[in-house]
Amino acid sequence: MSGRRIAAAWIRHHSVTTDLIENMDKKATWDRFYAENRNRTTTFKNFEWFFGFDAIRDFIMPSLQTKSHGDALLHVLDMGCGTSAIGPCIYRHSHLPVRVTCADISPIAVRQMLEHIQANTIQPHNASSQLEFVELDCTELQTHYVCRSVDLIVDKGTTDALLRSKEGKGKAGLVLKQCLKVLRSSGSLLQFSDEDPDARLVWLETEAQEAGVMSSDVSVQEVGELRGMTYYCYQVTPRPIV
Ligand SMILES: C[S@@+](CC[C@H](N)C(=O)[O-])C[C@H]1O[C@@H](n2cnc3c(N)ncnc32)[C@H](O)[C@@H]1O
User: Fold this and answer.
1) 171: containing domain
2) Fewest beta carbons within 10 Å, which of 87, 177, 188, 221?
3) Distances from the Cα of 240 to the Cαs of 147, 195, 201, 205, in angstroms?
């Protein structure tokens, strides 16, 4: 390739990357991302932001165990699922009966996941478990869930995407408040992120307060290092003010 062609390709790649980073709160950005990703290969492959299920199963599955309430289905949400295999893996491996909802703002991602699951049926460990894929803007979680009905919300990279985009910070705060409204008092939100605790803990503690209405407990654990980056699991538990 000539020097000019390489430069043109680099500029094009650079502008696509900048566009993605600045607009990660926009549906159109992700529709394009998942459509282009799918076109790159002949067969569908789950795309994982940061890492896959095996890296975080020891955070997710024990947390789920603590939320059991008899034979009732535990409601689990993979918020901003994209084409990640996290939701299907929880459905497959959970001994407890679960209803796993994989929700994303991008209908392209949701359609790809649906088509993949329809073509490759998964046998859940618990025969009562359910798996669904929905197109949903998570700033409006209450259009899908009634208050205090969800046991576990997994957020791998979704809040990061909102916080890092040019106009997404307000949406990240809205999403967090919606999570706290739909979570049961025994429920938790697990955010997997590369953001440093100095910044994320302050943001979570500030945004999760609603004067006189809501408070929450926030904690952090290190997940590990990958390609020189340290990743964290932030746990947020609602504490309704009575
Ligand atoms: C960084 S990706 C992470 C995807 C997936 N969780 C993973 O681990 O691979 C962020 C995801 O959030 C989704 N998203 C962005 N804004 C959203 C919103 N308001 N409601 C629901 N999903 C959203 C995007 O479509 C994208 O799939």
Assistant:
1) 3-240
2) 221
3) 12, 27, 19, 14
